[in-house]
Amino acid sequence: MGKIKIGILVGSLRKASFCRKIAKTLVSLASDNLEFKFIELRDMEMYDQDLEDEDRVPDSWVKFRKEVEQTDAVIFVTPEYNRGVPAVLKNAIDIGSRPYGFSVWDGKPGAVVSVSPGAMGAFGANHMLRQSFVFLNIHVMQQPEAYIGNVMSLYDENDKITDDDTQVFLKSIIDSFEEWIKIVKPAV
User: Fold this and answer.
1) Of 38, 94, 118, 136, whose CB is crowded by the most CB atoms within 10 A?
2) CATH value of 4-73+80-182 in 1.20.120.1220, 3.30.240.20, 3.40.50.360, 3.40.50.1970
């Protein structure tokens, strides 16, 4: 049996994104049974049904769909913008869900980690994603819930976690997700 292939979608495009730092920390804490691929969202055109209908599907959509299809599971790491999900992440979810009947998300195990400089840990974005995932048939890990608040105080100047409790918590998230994948997709 090979490694479990996990795609990571980061909903923040910022160079110094705290979401990307958290995602990299999760990768560093994972067991050797997992293999990760950051699936980039920056260069994807906005979803437009006319492009599908007129057989003018952008290469970026084709590439994205293929990358997601090649994963066994997906981790979504998101900030919260105006109490919701960033447009770039919602766009990726919509692109992956089309054309109708060919969603790359169907049946995939998923995890949501939301990140915020505020105390609430992007609670709204986390739950907005979960709501979409019900329709998309993404089997979202329920526990532990992952709301990472006050993220600006968690890293040093070398992007290393300085808070031991947070590191232990992040380790529990990635370990639990590995177990969740085995429950949802035992053949992986």
Assistant:
1) 136
2) 3.40.50.360
Neighbours of 137 (CB within 10 A): 13
**What is the SS3 string spanning 1-21?**
CCCEEEEEEECCCCCCCHHHH
Domain boundaries, the chain: 4-73+80-182
Q: What average pLDDT values come out for the chain (188 residues) when binned by 10 residues?
A: 92 92 96 97 96 95 98 96 91 96 97 86 87 95 92 88 92 98 91
Q: How many whole angstroms separate alpha carbon 174 and alpha carbon 74?
A: 12
* Beta-carbon contacts of residue 156 (< 8 Å; ≥ 6 apart): 162
Contacts of 132 (CB under 8 A, 6+ apart): 90, 93
pTM flag (> 0.90): yes
Q: What are phi and psi of 136, to 5 degrees?
A: -80, -5
Provide CB contacts within 8 A for 27, sequence distance 6+: 8, 36, 174
